[in-house]
Specification:
The complex is a heterotrimer. By secondary structure, chain A is α+β, with helices and mostly antiparallel strands. Chain A is built from 10 helices and 6 strands. Among the domains of chain A are: about 80 residues, Ubiquitin-like (UB roll) (Roll); about 90 residues, Alpha-helical ferredoxin (Fumarate Reductase Iron-sulfur Protein, Chain B, domain 2), CATH 1.10.1060.10. Chain B is built from 12 helices and 8 strands. In chain B, β1, α1 and β2 form a beta-alpha-beta unit. In chain B, α9 packs across α10. Chain C folds into 2 domains: about 100 residues, Fumarate Reductase Iron-sulfur Protein, Chain B, domain 2 (Orthogonal Bundle); about 30 residues, no CATH class. Helix content of chain C is about 55%, strand content about 0%. Chain C contains 10 helices and no strands. In chain C, α2 packs across α8. The chains are: A alpha+beta, B alpha/beta, C mainly alpha. Chains A and B meet through α4 of A and α2 of B.
Chain lengths: ~260, ~290, ~140
């Protein structure tokens, strides 16, 4: 009985990681209809690579935010369609997987600067919005848990702010579009709505504008020149001796050096 | 203050603000708070007329489920298109067990629904729950015998299972106008279709329908027309503009939503009525009749 | 107009599909013409509502397919509420439209509508037109 002997049990594999040898359970998954036995605990993406797929499309940040790796799968003997991002979801035994790295969805062409903030701009550019039948397949297909149908509904009602709020977590993976009965490209419409909201409706940060103005007026030039002339030692000293606002400071707290205010 | 679950419909949030805003204010004066239901979606506008298609029933049924979920057993609408679709879908869920089961099991993320909610139009609420006499007594600014043609269009009265009044000889708008101190002007085309969604596919045909309806109302002596549907408003409003351009002699008329006349007669600030969004320049007519300051 | 009637046409798939989708018994119509008389759109139609029922009954699908009648119909239901036999003609119109739409042949396309109109049309118009005329 030797730990180094090749393990004949097909449900396990030997893994060596940083000098440590351990047994990892293998589980069957079906990728594009073919069975592969992959180590338990891998993400779908890693499992596909373990199985020998080289991913040059449908693969991006590997961190759950770029939306490139939208994946559809089914569990055994369950009619329900499940969705996830391949880089985020761990494989489960008998998962039946297919990747949807790109679902065709053309974007309307527009000159953003020429658009007003009216919702009718979206109606004009995406008239297929009105083909939505509120079947909710989009919501069920969203790996980010967005209420896609509700966001489309808000868009039909002309409520751009609400669309922006509801679709905030959208990573444009396109899974909603792939399932849409009305053949809408929801994420393109949402992106336009968010752009309109951000550029034309959301309140402006006036304090930021004022700050930029005072910088342009040269208010901070003197201090910048002093810092530029300071030696490395002086800069280190200034940094170490800098004053920071205490956590418990009230609204009326002022620093010792009020020259910058 | 009595509260009623209220379903607006998409158009009332944009183009037809002048249907919704006076309604909410006017109903408060009458002691009814219109509580917009939350998470509503587009009702689908038209009712699917095929026996074997259920996906198009999902949109209206989902809204009825929202009403039920929010603990209400009645929902009121202002837009007659929405009334028609919601009411017909409701009937389907009440009456057809097989389709009801299929729709309920398809919408597995929602609670089951079997027609528990009653769908009503605001005119029915005014007639049945408030009453014309009570309404007349609350009128602060009687409408000075303004001669108004009541136009029903299709969706309030057809099919028979939806009709809020007699299909052949409806009286509800007539009684409504009388209660407000206006003079209803009956005319033959009160229930003739304005062309509905044909404005999208056959806009040229719409001119003919609009001509028939408006010139008939003019002939019978109407000074204005009262409507309940944003699509009728668009077709008649745009239509009369086009006709006036092409035919020198054509005379249209100001178009009002029934809720605007209601708010005006109850003495509310006319600014709430949003007359600036109407077709046919109602403000000059109202000023003529001393109904506007 | 002259048409050819045959048992094959009467028993065709077209007729059975029409019956299934509309849920209507085509035999009850006695061709009184109330529907045509009440239809506000009939003057624009090449084949009148009354004639449509007869053509449908006889399985004459080509004649129906070549007409623009069902695409001018506005589903106003004037025909339905006035029919003395209780025949729901609006459902027959819908069934005929659906035979085309379900073949993935749309009657209108959003890009045929001008951008200005798409901006101006109320949602209610776009939703209903796309529901009736696209599959």
């Amino acid at each position: 009985m030797s730990a180094k002997k090749q393990n004949k049990n097909p449900a396990e594999t030997i893994v060596e990681e940083e000098g440590e040898v351990s047994k990892v359970k293998l589980i069957p998954v079906y990728i594009m209809g073919k069975r592969y036995d992959v180590p338990e605990g891998l993400t779908i993406m890693k499992a596909m690579e373990y199985a020998g797929y080289k991913l040059i499309r449908g693969c991006g940040c590997r961190g759950g935010t770029c939306g490139a790796c939208g994946t559809v799968y089914r569990e055994p003997r369950d009619y329900k369609i499940q969705v996830s991002l391949a880089c985020q979801k761990a494989v489960e035994p008998d998962m039946y997987i297919a990747q949807i790295p790109l679902f065709p969805a053309s974007r309307a062409q527009y000159e953003f600067a020429e658009l007003t903030s009216a919702p009718e701009e979206v109606f004009k550019l995406y008239p297929e919005l009105f083909r939505c039948v509120a079947c909710n397949a989009c919501t069920k297909a969203c790996p980010q848990g967005i209420e896609v149908m509700d966001a489309i509904s808000a868009l039909k009602q002309g409520n751009i702010a609400e669309v922006s709020r509801l679709s905030f977590d959208c990573i444009q993976c396109g899974l909603c579009t792939s399932r849409c009965f009305g053949e809408l490209a929801q994420y393109h419409m949402f992106q336009l709505a968010r752009r309109i909201y951000g550029a034309k409706i959301a309140p402006r940060a006036n304090h930021l504008a004022r700050m930029v103005e005072s910088i342009d007026e040269g208010k901070y030039d003197k201090f910048l020149e002093e810092l530029k002339k300071a030696s490395e030692q002086e800069l280190k000293r200034l940094y170490q001796e800098r004053e920071t606002e205490p956590m418990t400071a009230g609204e009326d707290w002022v620093p010792k050096d009020t020259g910058y205010l | 203050m009595m509260s009623l679950a209220y379903y607006p419909g998409c158009t009332l949030k944009t183009k037809a603000r002048n249907l919704e805003e006076p309604a909410v204010a006017a109903m408060e004066v009458l002691g009814v708070k219109l509580e917009e239901i939350s998470r509503w979606n587009c009702c689908g506008a038209v009712y699917s007329l095929s026996d074997d298609d259920l996906i198009h029933q999902v949109a209206p049924v989902r809204n009825l489920i929202r009403v039920k979920e929010q603990g209400e057993n009645e929902v009121v609408t202002l837009c007659s298109f929405c009334l028609n679709t919601l009411k017909r879908a409701n009937h389907l869920m009440k009456g057809d067990a097989e389709k009801r089961n299929t729709i309920n099991s398809f919408m597995d993320e929602e609670v089951d629904y079997s027609g528990e909610v009653k769908v009503a139009h605001l005119l029915e609420v005014l007639r049945d729950e408030i009453g014309w006499e009570a309404l007349a007594q609350m009128v602060k600014l009687p409408l000075q015998k303004l001669k108004v043609a009541p136009y029903y269009g299709c969706t309030l009265l057809r099919p028979r299972e939806v009709a809020i009044d007699s299909v052949e000889n409806p009286a509800i708008l007539r009684e409504f106008l009388k209660a407000l101190g206006a003079t209803p002007v009956d005319f033959p085309h009160a229930t003739t279709c304005c062309g509905s969604y044909q404005i999208v596919s056959n806009p040229d045909d719409i001119s003919r329908y609009v001509w028939d309806i408006l010139s008939s109302a003019v002939r019978y002596g109407a000074e204005a027309m009262v409507l309940t549907c944003p699509l009728c408003d668009y077709n008649l409003g745009q239509g009369q503009k086009e006709l006036a351009k092409k035919h020198n002699g054509f005379k249209g008329m100001p178009l009002f939503y029934f809720t605007q006349l209601l708010a005006l007669a109850l003495g509310l600030d006319p600014a709430l009525c949003r007359f600036e969004l109407n077709y046919g320049e109602p403000e000059s007519l109202l000023r003529e009749k001393n109904l506007l300051p | 107009m002259s048409v050819t009637i045959s048992p094959k046409r009467l028993g065709s798939e077209f007729v059975s599909k029409i019956k299934e989708i509309s849920g209507q018994n085509l035999q009850v119509c006695y061709q009184c013409g109330m529907c045509s008389g009440n239809c506000p759109m009939s003057s624009n139609m090449d084949i009148t509502p009354r004639q449509i029922i007869e053509l449908a009954r006889l399985g004459l699908e080509e004649e129906i397919a070549n007409s623009k009648t069902v695409w001018i119909c506005a589903s106003c239901l004037a025909c339905t509420v006035n029919c003395p036999r209780g025949f729901d003609l609006s459902k027959l119109m819908e069934a005929i439209r659906l035979l085309t739409l379900r073949e993935n042949v749309d009657h209108i396309s959003p890009d045929e509508i001008s951008p200005e109109e798409r901006r101006e049309l109320p949602q209610i118009a776009m939703v209903s037109a796309l529901r009736k005329f696209t599959g």
